[in-house]
Amino acid sequence: MGAIRQCSRSACRNSAVATLTYVYADSTAVLGPLATYAEPHCYDLCEQHAGTLTVPRGWEVLRLAMPATAPQPGPDDLLALAHAVREAASRPPAPETPSGQRAVHPALEAPATPEGARRGHLRILREPS
Fold it and tell me: What residue ranges do the domains of the chain occupy?
């Protein structure tokens, strides 16, 4: 089960109920039920923005049937969530550091990189000890 997704329109804070996809080769906009997970080239829209969708002149809008009610979590979703909670609860807690704070679990630690190393567009800078 994922987090509730918001409408992709700027300044809109409503929950998304539909997904909009453009098929540029066919000059078609496809509006259908909310996709299972967010895709980078699709737009999630709330009910208001899905209902007032307009497209450029010469384009076609294909509106797929929308479900009457929002999909409820099924037994598989709930079982997966229960298993994840049990697995997390069965892990031993991370040891405390000398300052009394919990250490980061070794599996979650970032790999060591030299001072000033770059990772993508970010740079890692260490604080002086």
Answer: 1-79
